[in-house]
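During the reporting period the student researcher (J.K.) took over the structure-prediction task from the postdoctoral fellow and processed the backlog of single-chain submissions. One of the processed entries is reproduced below for the supervisory committee.
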Amino acid sequence: MFASLSRAARRRVLAASAAMLALCGVLVWWLAPFGAPAPSGTVTFSTGVPTGVYQRYGELLKQALATDLPEVSIQLKDSEGSQQNLARVATGEADFTVATADAVAQYQREGRPGFQRLRGCARLYDDYVQLVVRKGSEIREPRDLRGLRVGVGQDGSGVRLIADRVLAAAGLTPTRDVEPVSAGIDTMPGLLQRGELDAFFWSGGLPTHAVQDLSERFPIRLIPLDAALVDRMHQAGDATRHYRSAVIPADAYTKAQDGQQVETLAVANLLVTTVGADRDLVEGFTRTVIRSRDRIGGQVHPAQLVDLRTAVYTEPLKLHEGARRYYRSVKP
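J.K. obtained the following structure tokens:
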């Protein structure tokens, strides 16, 4: 029948058929779900001690994620710090966490369970090492800690790693030349104030609320950690190359610093997940971290330093593919 039609009639039939096919395509596109399903489910985020920056950052990030990923339920889980955080994520006990780059490198170097699975989502902000003493103390440098009671952080914390390395670089054996006290930032300020500690180490964003609060009710000062000490730390091996010389600005702890900046060392914090994490979830998580910088930074000052230009550098971790996809989508 089609063959018996005139050439013009055949043309009209073909044009009508093409139009009908195009219309069907539009209807299929309109009726079909647009894009991939939004991420959903429950995600565990391992944070830190209750009064630390990790915990507060996690609380505010959870609020931001509730808006950006409404089908995802975020559960926060307190921890002792970076080392415990990495162990939880690497072994599947948590899905996301924050950990310092030196703790990651140490975890990898020791070949601890699941280390090959770890991936980075973003470089966040730097932690600054703070060695705190009473204002009237005779301690002037780390080697003066010999024979004294020193808060060195909890066993699963990044603080413990750094404290041991600072003491070693100062010529002290951490387990023999000082009396190490395993405690977190939630208890060390009170111990110092009551005279149960002579000094304590803390590694965190500036200012750390617990240190700031202590400085406002009790006279303290910060011990300088100079560039020569950082150089000696670098000689210890691969994980220590993630430390850099830095200064604590004069206005970080006004009452503790008497208008003076303090030399110290800093190390980057990384947002960490595993290679098996859902790409869409990681992409959304990373997007929220970057976009919520100013909102979170208004309450957690270190978060103001999250920068899209440097967030992609998650060494020593490979970048997760979902995070890579996000960074490519916003690349100028």
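The committee noted the following: The chain has a mean pLDDT of 89.
J.K. will present the remaining backlog at the next meeting.
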